[in-house]
Amino acid sequence: MGDLLVFVLSGLVSGALYALLATGLVLSYSASGLFNFAHGATAYLCALVFYELHSGLGWPAVPAALLVVCVLAPGLGWGLDRLMFRRLARVGESAQIVATIGLLVALPAAGLWAVELLADAGAPVRPAENQFGLPGVGPSPARSWRLADGVGVDSDQLITWAVTAVVAAALWVLLRHTRLGLRLRASVDDRSLTELRGISADRLSSVAWMIASGLAGLAGVLATPLLGLSAHDFTLFLFVSATAAVIGRFASVPLAFAGGLGLGVLQNLVAGYASFAESVTGFRTAVPFLILFGGLLVLTRRARTAGVASADSPPPDHLAGAPWGRRWGVWAAGAGLLCVALYTVTTPFWSGLLAQGLAVGLVFLSFTVVTGLGAMVSLAQATFVTWRGC
């Protein structure tokens, strides 16, 4: 019984962070219809700034956290909305995915680059990349309390649980029982009709992204003792949080919150009690994604059942009547020259680069087949490169 309680309590810590990120995803999606892949990168950037303010510049933890959560994160959300998100809401899903994934890569890199510039200028900053065991908002080192034999909690865990519960309740009240929440949901249902009512949909979008970025910043600050400063771990947390958002169908804050808590507990229970999981590498971290896959199948099936099949004809092939030489001659000549170069004039170094470029080119070519011909966006094409047949 003691082991079960330990697994549940520790799972509720990561589950609370999942829930916090998931509520931000639900809010931004409910307000703009845009899934933000850079939500985890925003959390990482805010955690980085909090770490440098607190550990590098010596600020007290609470003022540093308030500055990051209440000023920096909302300001970042407002700026990104004015520059990108407002326009992305009017384009297709492919452009939205590419743009937000670009932010996922760019934001952590920009933060680390800024830290390097400050260090070169003599500012008292600390090395930030892949740092672990960092102090959080609470006391450092964290205070611990023993609840039972072998079961204890610390101050960082209590702060995470309390803040996440308060934020989830406040978001639910905001979306369901306030005029602002009603306007946010109305702008998603029919943006043009909302503007005809004299409500600025762009202003609502800015408010939603400011709140969502504030939630991401709060998650980053609270997650600093647990995740440290690893952009990879924050990105992984984002996709697990997306599973909780799917459980809430990107509309229900309470369901997304409960789903995040449940995923954290489920991961720990699988790691603690599923004996077969020890022999399957990565099974514990794959549990949320298996749930995500199933949830997306359910949502897709419902969407197809409720929707109407499109009868649009495929786009015309403007090269259908072109001669063979025009269609394939240039490509054949280029391929021949490349093969000759690989085995004659190039050095082994350049031959290796060309071979790697061809391999990556094949991966990118697969996107043309899946997205251009199949009308689907796949983010898993590169994973097939690492699969080896027997």
The level of helicity is: over 70%
Lateral arrangement of strands in the main beta sheet:
1-2
Q: Mean pLDDT, rounded to whole units? A: 77
Strand content: under 5%
Features:
13 helices, globular, mainly alpha, 2 strands, single chain, 72% helix, two-stranded antiparallel ribbon, 390 residues
Structure characterization notes:
With 390 residues, the protein is mainly α. 72% of the residues lie in helices and 2% in strands. It is built from 13 helices and 2 strands. It has helices at residues 2-32, 39-56, 61-88, 93-120, 155-177, 179-189, 191-196, 201-227, 231-247, 253-273, 283-306, 324-343, 348-373; strands at residues 144-148, 151-154. It has a two-stranded antiparallel ribbon. A hairpin with a 2-residue loop joins β1 (144-148) and β2. It is globular and about 75 Å long. The two termini are 43 Å apart.
Lay out the secondary structure:
Blueprint: H1 2-32, H2 39-56, H3 61-88, H4 93-120, E1 144-148, E2 151-154, H5 155-177, H6 179-189, H7 191-196, H8 201-227, H9 231-247, H10 253-273, H11 283-306, H12 324-343, H13 348-373
Antiparallel strand pairs: 1-2
